Structures are given as C-alpha cells and as structure tokens.
Amino acid sequence: MIRRRHNLRSARLAAMAFAVWALFCAGVVPVATADADSFAAMKISRSPAVMEAPVFRLKTLDGQEIDSSSLRGKVVVLNFWATWCGPCKEEMPALERLRRSFDQNQVALLAVTIDLQRAGIRAFMKQLDLTFPVLLDEDRDVSAMFLVRGLPTTVLIGRDGTLIGRAVGPRAWDSPQSVALVKDLLK
Amino acid sequence: MTPYARIVGFALTVAGAVLAGASFGSLEAEEPTGKPGAAIQLGPKQTVEFKVRAMTGPSVRVDVQGFLHATWMEEDKDVRAVRYAKSVEPAGKLGEPIRVNGPGEAPYWRQESPALAVTNTEVFLAWALTHPKATPEKPLGTELRLSRSTDGGRSFLPSIKINDDDQVVLHSFDALHLGLDGMLHVSWVDSREGKKDPGTFHARSTDRGQSIGGNMKLDENTCVCCRTALATAPDGTVYVAWRKIFPGEIRETVLARSEDGGKTFAESVIVGNDRWVYASCPHRPASIGVDAQGRVYVVWYTEGADETPAVYFTTSDDRGRTFSAKRMMNVSKGTFPDHPQMAVDPDGRVVLLWEELSPVRQEIVMSVSLDRGQTFSRPQKMNDKKSQSPTVSVNSKGLAAMAWKEHAMSGHRLVLQTAQLPAPPQVTLLP
User: Fold this and answer.
1) pTM
2) Which residues pair with B50 in a beta bridge?
3) Which of A20, A45, B109, B234 is most buried, by CB atoms within 10 Å?
C-alpha cells in the first residue's frame, strides 16, 4: 500500500512537472522578471518554474562526448536544428556571432541535430565558418527530452542548470537584445 | 477566448487531471464502436534487433497475400544503406534484410524511411541520395532515386533518378504510390526554383518504374521539411497532400487532386483551416487514404491557432473539394500527440497510429474505425518500450501491418505487429 501511494505520488509529481513543462514548451508563459524586455524582444518564453534542465550525453561530429552536467556554471544556448531546415541554417551565422560575443568559459553554445549527414554538416559548418560544436542526437532522445516539436528550437539553460527559456523558430541571436539577455543570465 | 487563455485552459486541464490522480498515458484497449462486439485480432509482436549505429524508423506495407514488406535506412561504421526485408510467410517473420542502394550510392540521412509501394511481385522504393555533384559550397543537395524489384523483393535493379533537373538542391520528403491502374506516382519537396521556400512536385511512371516521366510542380510555398503524402482512388483520381505556407507563416495541410491520372492537378485545397502560425519546420507529414467508394481520408498534426498539439482526422466525399468537420483523435491529457500515420482499406476500415510523447515517455497508440471514419476505438497503447516513428499499411482483406522503431541499449529494434480487422458493419438498404 505504501509503495502504491509512493508510486501514485511520484506519478502525480511527474505529471505536474509535465503540466509545467507543457506550458513552457507551448511558449506562452508570460514574462514577469527584471529582464522581461529582453525576453519579450526576442519572443522567448520563460520557464514558468524553477526546473532542472534534462541531463544528457551526446557525441560531437568529431566523436567527443559532451556531458551536459559538465556545463554547470555556464549559460548554455542549446540550438536544435537540421540540414534540411532552411530557417535553421539562416540563423546559424547569428548564433556564431552571439557565441563570439562571450567568453566560452561563461557561455556554451551547442547545436543539436537529429541529422546524420556528417560530411554535409562538416562542409556546411566550414563554409559558414561556424565554430560551435554540433552534437548528434541520433535517436532523437535529447530532442524528445526537451520536447522539441519544430526546428529550429533554442533552449536557454542558466548557470545553475535550470531551464530559463525557449525560442521556437529563428531569431536574430546577434541582436543587442539577445546579447543583453545572455549578459543578464550571466549576472 | 484568446489563444493564451486556451493554452492556459489546456494546462489547467492537465494539472486538474494530475490532482485528480489521473493515470497519464494508460490508454486502454477498446473495441471499435462501428460494430458492437467486433474484435481486432492482434498478431504477436515481432522484434528485430539491429546492431548498427543508427537507423531510421521503418516504412511498412502488406501485400494482398499478407506478406509484410519493410524498409528503413541504417548507418554503421559511417556507411549508410537503404535496407529492405520481406516476411518469409504471410503475416510472418521478416526475412534477411537486403541492401537496396548500389555500391557507389550514399543515401542522404534525414531521419525518415524510404517510401515504399508493393504488389505481389514488385517492390518500389523512393529514397534520397546525397547529390553526386555536391561540393563544399553546396554540401546538402539530394537526388531522388527510385529502386525497384521485379522478383518479389529478392533483388533490386539499379536505381533511376526521379527528379529531372541536375541542381544540387533538396529533392526529398517523398511519397510513393502504385495505383490500381498500374501507374506509379511520386511526390516530393523540391528546391530547384531557388526560392525561399520550395515547391511540391509530382512525377509518374507509366511503365511500372522502368522510367519516370517529366516532373511537374504542383504548388509553391511548401513547408521545407514535411513529407508529402500520396493516394489514388479506384477511378484513378490521384491525391497529393503536403503542408503549405500561407502569408503570416500560417501552416496548413492542403490536398490537390488530379482527375486525369496525374497529368494535371487542380489547385490545392486547405484541409483543416487550422490557422497554425509557425515560422519553423514542423517536420510532420499528413497521411491520406481512399476507400473503394472514393471517400478521401486525411489525418494530420497541427497546433492550430491556440498552439495546442493535436492530431486531426477528416474525410471528403467530393474528391477533396470540401471536408467534413475535423475531429481531434488524441485523448490523452498527459502527453503530446505526434506523427500520425494512417492506412485505409477498400471497405473504409481505417487504422491510425501516432506517438504520444512526454519528456520521459514515447508511446505508440492505435485507433481503428470500421465504419468509414464515423467512429473510432479509444486509442490503445501498442509499444512495450520507448518507441517512435510509427508506420501502418492495410491490404484489401483487412490485414493491417504496423511497425515502429524501439530503443535498445546497444542497437535498435524494429517492431512489427499485424492486426486482422473484423468485417465492416453490414448496411441494410431500405426499400
């Protein structure tokens, strides 16, 4: 009986977390913080509650394994994309410029793709001089963990590992508003 | 009610269900209501494990004799291959997979299976090839290829090119369908015109896949990453569905028909009028079917004006000119529905599969109609472990074949299951 109650409680907590997560993923959570202007300007939905970002391990194009828990202490910009996604490719140079605006010890920009067209990805990255790592989400697991429903989707994770916000669709990541937003997250 | 209020309502419904102790995702089997007492006979699950680095979900077809045909793309040791396997007996176990692409052909990986069409003796596969003329400046182009077998899937002839241009651009997200008249139809998304958004193209083969005719653009402003869908009616009417971008980044599923066997197509018609504003790639196709009486069935994913993920179903009895009121098929309040797929047999028996997702769950559910889409069974959970990419086919005898991809610790699993549908309800004609 105790075990059943425990299971039920766990299920309810998990489901409650899902409800909060669903709101977050729906991208409609109202903004109510000091940096609200930056979020509103970038049309980024904020996480409605303090929630830990899912922890994952993925390999880069070069075979290096990245453990997201090792990024604790940095602001993480997690961009989900694919080579067939036009809007994704359009925003990539802006993401690169955002990355170059910050110390890489403070801000980590990672691109996650379900695409396995490695040679094409390498050529594309080289062609546009994109230097951030591309992580291969071969089985869509990480995309599913973050409930990515469209590409591009960009998730912001705070230095303490909590979910901050989410943008669905391309953004001007090199805009003053975007830079200000990331600076705010570093405070 | 504003979209925001609707979404909040959606979330409150979820939260309310949580507090009420609802069991999320526990989708119980229920018989279709089309014929009281009718039972669907599920076959045993067949799990095939592949020790490969990666594989796409499968495409599956069941031929009129009940043989199962499956195709997928896999990668191991940096080599990609298009694979095909056929069951050794009707509704039986899959035989040894064979490689379809030629030695010099490198398939393009876009997380979707090859398109598949079969008869008793022929197998047709459409798939994207990394463009042979790809350069460092244009690394992402694809060619669309057609492979065919004339010996029941034991071997495949060298592939032929489907797109009739040589541009190093995207030709992909294809659908393939063999009509009752023997005409092979292909539709796909094509960027050859160099516009911001690609177009939807169609071609046909009048010689059972030996050659492909000229390519025809059906429309512009196609969503770049949503696969097209194809079906034909017994009278030869051809239907193509895709997701179209309208001004304001509105994404609508549209359907175009050809009443001359694919020579020309009428202007596309919006199916659900969802008003979904989405400035990105949904990567979710519609699925269509036609029964013996010519009723057109459409199922699709949208988030609509209120940005709520949903799977909708509708039918058309006037060759896709107008559609019945759309019906939401997903009922679970604790998960997001996704990636619907549908098969329709000549009697109008409909099998729907889709995913139900949460951050920790990936389930496949099935819903069946025996009465031409009037009523559906409650969604029934089909998978045992985390699964994705469902696919379904049904033959003229009501034998459905379902398949999906399952995660395994060290490899990947393809799961197949058959379902024998009960006879459709008898209709008594009044004098």
Assistant:
1) 0.88
2) B412
3) B109
**Which one-letter amino acid corresponds to residue B75?**
E
Q: State the total domains in chain A.
A: 1
Least CB–CB distance from A85: residue in B80, B224, B336: B224
Asked if residues A175 and A37 have their Cβ atoms less than 8 Å apart, the reply is no
Query: Bridge-partner residues for B399, per DSSP?
Result: B420
User: Other CB atoms closer than 10 Å to residue A7's CB: what's the count?
Assistant: 10
Range of the domain at A170: 2-186
- Residue B63 CB neighbour total at 10 angstroms: 24
Beta carbons of B337 and B312 less than 8 angstroms apart: no
User: How many C-beta neighbours within 10 Å does residue B154 have?
Assistant: 11
Percent share of chain B, pLDDT over 90: 78
Partners of residue B308 in chain A, C-beta under 8 Å: 26
Can you give the length of chain A in residues?
187
pLDDT at B171: 96
Q: What token pair was written down for B429?
A: 């004609």
What lies within 8 Å, CB to CB, of B297 at 6+ separation is B288, B289, B290, B291, B313, B314, B315, B342, B344, B350, B373
Contact B162, B212 (CB under 8 A): yes
Q: How far is CA B303 from CA A27, A71, A153, B273, B276, in A?
A: 12, 33, 16, 11, 6
Average pLDDT of chain B, as a whole number? 90
The ipTM (two decimal places) reads 0.77
Q: In 3-state terms, what secondary structure has residue A92?
A: helix
Query: CA nearest B185: which of B167, B168, B162, B165?
Result: B162
User: Quick one: which of A44, A51, A19, A46 has its CA closest to A33?
Assistant: A46
Q: Do B14 and A22 touch (CB under 8 A)?
A: yes
In tens, the pLDDT along B29-38 reads 445 554 444 6
Facing residue for B359 by CB, picked from A18, A86, A126: A18
Here the CATH number for the domain that contains residue A72 is 3.40.30.10
Residue with tokens 């409609």, as numbered in its chain: A28
Intervals of chain B under pLDDT 50 = 1-30, 34-37
